[in-house]
Amino acid sequence: MTYLQFHLVFLLPPLILLLLWARPRPPRLWAYLLMPLIAFLYTTPWDNYLVWREVWGYPEGRVLFRIGYVPFEEYLFFLLQPLLTGALLLRLAGEPPSPGPGLARVVGGGIWLLVDALGVLLLALGGPYLYLGLILAYFVPIFVLQWAFGGDLLWAWRGPLLLGVLLPTLYLWFADFWAITREGIWWISEAYTLGVKAWGLPLEEMAFFLFTNLAIVQGLLLAWHPEALKRLR
């Protein structure tokens, strides 16, 4: 199986089904369509660095061509994952709830700030801590900002938040496991990972899909909440 075939099997069919089920429409449509572009722009430099450092890579013959260090199919993944996760969230997120306790903004932002500090420490240690450190140091600042800005809104919307993150993450864990262990579409360096695995999937890969989905879901929920728009104004 090639990387493009992976998309055709694991990403496009569920995306099409979810879109038919969700039938996205304004006013939430604009944020749903904008999120893939944001994910693309934010993830591109990070991903190029990881491939350049050989934290992960792709065997010859499994990708069409590369732009920079990253295969074309990887850029497609940056667009398809937010569309897939967001399409499910369109069905899970009902009417915006009333804001929760304001303390959630302080506590949530503070907790994520500590996690970010851990990521910077792991990044400084390097070696087997590098991949996990890169994930935490690069993606957790997003969570710090999201919770400091609208933690009360995210807490009030915690049901859709949890399900909206959990379900696509479990599915992408399975797809990633299949791509690595069964098809060999990409590989993960043992030199830059802790060697901790669950069901054959590296801990770092599990963290990557969890954190990227968390960024997508929290970003969309904030964009869809009228109170968040008032705060921006």
UniProtKB/TrEMBL annotation:
Query: Where does it reside?
Result: Membrane
Stretches assigned to the Lycopene cyclase domain = 3-88, 130-215
Q: Per its UniProt entry, which superkingdom is the organism in?
A: Bacteria
Keyword Transmembrane helix set for record: yes
Q: Which UniProt keywords apply?
A: Carotenoid biosynthesis, Isomerase, Membrane, Transmembrane, Transmembrane helix
Predominant cellular place of this UniProt entry's protein: membrane
What NCBIfam families would the database entry show? CarR_dom_SF (TIGR03462)
The protein, known as:
Lycopene cyclase domain-containing protein
Say which species the protein is native to.
Thermus thermamylovorans
